[in-house]
Automatic annotation (TrEMBL):
<dbReference type="InterPro" id="IPR023990">
    <property type="entry name" value="Butryl-CoA_acetate_CoA_Tfrase"/>
</dbReference>
<keyword id="KW-0963">Cytoplasm</keyword>
<dbReference type="InterPro" id="IPR003702">
    <property type="entry name" value="ActCoA_hydro_N"/>
</dbReference>
<dbReference type="InterPro" id="IPR026888">
    <property type="entry name" value="AcetylCoA_hyd_C"/>
</dbReference>
<feature type="domain" description="Acetyl-CoA hydrolase/transferase C-terminal">
    <location>
        <begin position="279"/>
        <end position="434"/>
    </location>
</feature>
<comment type="pathway">
    <text>Lipid metabolism; butanoate metabolism.</text>
</comment>
<comment type="similarity">
    <text>Belongs to the acetyl-CoA hydrolase/transferase family.</text>
</comment>
<comment type="function">
    <text>Coenzyme A-transferase that converts butyrate to butyryl-CoA.</text>
</comment>
<dbReference type="GO" id="GO:0019605">
    <property type="term" value="P:butyrate metabolic process"/>
</dbReference>
<dbReference type="Pfam" id="PF13336">
    <property type="entry name" value="AcetylCoA_hyd_C"/>
</dbReference>
<dbReference type="GO" id="GO:0016787">
    <property type="term" value="F:hydrolase activity"/>
</dbReference>
<dbReference type="InterPro" id="IPR046433">
    <property type="entry name" value="ActCoA_hydro"/>
</dbReference>
<protein>
    <recommendedName>
        <fullName>Probable butyrate:acetyl-CoA coenzyme A-transferase</fullName>
        <ecNumber>2.8.3.-</ecNumber>
    </recommendedName>
</protein>
<feature type="binding site">
    <location>
        <position position="343"/>
    </location>
    <ligand>
        <name>CoA</name>
    </ligand>
</feature>
<dbReference type="GO" id="GO:0006083">
    <property type="term" value="P:acetate metabolic process"/>
</dbReference>
<keyword id="KW-0378">Hydrolase</keyword>
<keyword id="KW-0276">Fatty acid metabolism</keyword>
Length: 446
């Protein structure tokens, strides 16, 4: 006869207001990531504003509102932090209500184990099963290591959370929980879909010849992965696999087209592996109770030596700009934080090390400011910009004008290649800038 855990559940059940009473001034509180945001607990904690001081909260890729940040512009009571900005958290940063934590994602668990204090963790989970387990759902990539290192664990049961099968670390048992909170939640909000642009489509068309049947894909966030999903779904490619930090609707496109089978993977064969999922209601429905996928902590998903074991591993990420030396800025616009380091460097290293592996960083060659003026994303040299990927680790770079391989290339080869995929309107000026820096050999052969 199975043990009944309902008595222990009821003993730990309390209101959000009762649960947040454990938070003290000066505490570090973690909200974990994305759909793990504890909506009811956040609201209850914000109501304690005037009696608490210097409570520091961490989150990541969360949709708004975050009540503790919105209720205290003075930041005397609550200070909010993120280690990867959602569109909402980016706006908080712009308002001075959020501070960015630089983090390479495969080190996420180690940061929490060795360096970070977690006095209280508050995390949304799916309802408890008959064995006494709560599922971290699409938050599995980061939730487990944070919870394991917390002094006090509060779970908020969200009736809408999908249950996700995992490799490990996808659940927490009721015996490991200090407080349980229930309450009505709004249906999960569908994240705004970034429609692929014509430039995105051209970039993907340039990449497509480099991809072979049986490749395993890691796709970043934004319009580029959606373009990859749509165009790869329309291609002749077959038996693609998934091993990705972020699972988005791009993989759902591939699955519906019969392209995503995971049959050719050299590890986790037959399973699409991911850490966090963000997307549509249909995406969450596909992932729910699906034995064809497995969620793992990022310490596994993003670890370069794990990625390197996957034959024909292909990483496709985006960036903001690149300079003529091959340095890549992917997370900020100047000093303005717009996203995060995430797993770009993890997958650059891992995919480059895999047999048949390739790592692409993609960008449109230009952007327009609010006045409509056109600017190049290929710059002469960064000056104060935040570097995400060092020039020594960058592999393929792609724009709508082509693809270049940066591995093992000298400074003049890099400059020549980058100028060849820059927008034609800016190439002559970039050649002059390369000449000034003595990284150009062909000025007399133009």
């Amino acid at each position: 006869m199975l043990k009944d855990f309902t008595t222990e559940y009821r003993q730990k059940l309390c209101t959000p207001e009762e649960a947040v009473e454990v938070v003290k001034s000066g505490d570090w509180v973690d909200y974990t990531s994305s759909l793990g945001k504890p909506v009811l607990l956040d609201r209850a904690l914000a109501k304690r504003r005037d009696e608490l001081f210097d409570v520091k909260i961490r989150g990541n890729l969360m949709e708004g509102p975050i009540e503790v940040a919105e209720c205290d512009e003075s930041q005397e009571h609550f200070v909010y932090h993120t280690w990867h900005c959602s569109a909402y958290e980016r706006k908080l940063c712009d308002r001075g209500l959020c501070y960015y934590i630089p983090m390479v994602f495969h080190n996420n668990a180690a940061y929490y184990k060795y360096f970070l204090n977690v006095n209280v963790v508050m995390v949304s989970v799916s309802p408890m099963d008959k064995h006494g387990y709560f599922n971290y759902s699409v938050n599995t990539g980061v939730a487990g290591p944070i919870v394991q290192n917390a002094d006090i664990v509060i779970v908020e049961v969200n009736e809408h959370m999908p249950k996700i099968h995992g490799g490990y670390g996808e659940c927490i048992h009721v015996s490991e929980v200090d407080y349980i909170v229930e309450g009505r939640h709004e249906p999960i909000t569908t994240v705004r879909r970034y429609a692929p642009t014509e430039t995105d489509r051209k970039i993907v068309q340039n990449i497509l010849p480099y991809i072979c049947d049986g490749s395993t894909l890691q796709l970043g966030i934004g319009s580029m992965p959606n373009a990859v999903g749509e165009l790869f779904a329309e291609s002749d490619l077959k038996d693609l696999g998934m091993h990705t930090e972020l699972c988005s609707d791009a993989y759902l496109h591939l699955y519906k087209a019969g392209k995503l089978t995971n049959k050719k993977k050299t590890i986790d064969k037959g399973k699409g592996v991911f850490g966090v999922a963000i997307g549509s209601a249909e995406l969450y429905e596909w992932l729910d109770d699906n034995h064809g996928v497995a969620a793992y902590p990022l310490e596994y998903v993003n670890r370069p030596d794990v990625i390197a074991q996957i034959d024909n591993m292909v990483s496709i990420n985006s960036c903001v700009s690149v300079d003529l030396y091959g340095q890549v800025s992917s997370e900020s616009f100047g000093a303005r934080q717009i996203s995060g380091t995430g797993g770009q460097l993890d997958f650059l290293i891992g995919a480059s090390s895999a047999r048949g592996g390739k790592a692409f960083i993609c960008m449109g060659s230009t952007y327009k400011d609010k006045s409509g003026q056109l600017f190049s994303r290929v710059l002469p040299q960064f000056n104060g910009d935040i570097i995400t990927s060092p020039r020594s680790q960058v592999y393929f770079l792609a724009t709508e004008y082509g693809v270049i391989n940066m591995e093992g290339r000298s400074t003049w080869e890099r400059a020549e290649g980058l100028i060849s995929i820059a927008h034609p309107d800016f190439r002559d000026e970039l050649i002059k800038e390369a000449e000034k820096r003595k990284i150009w050999r062909r000025s007399n052969k133009r």
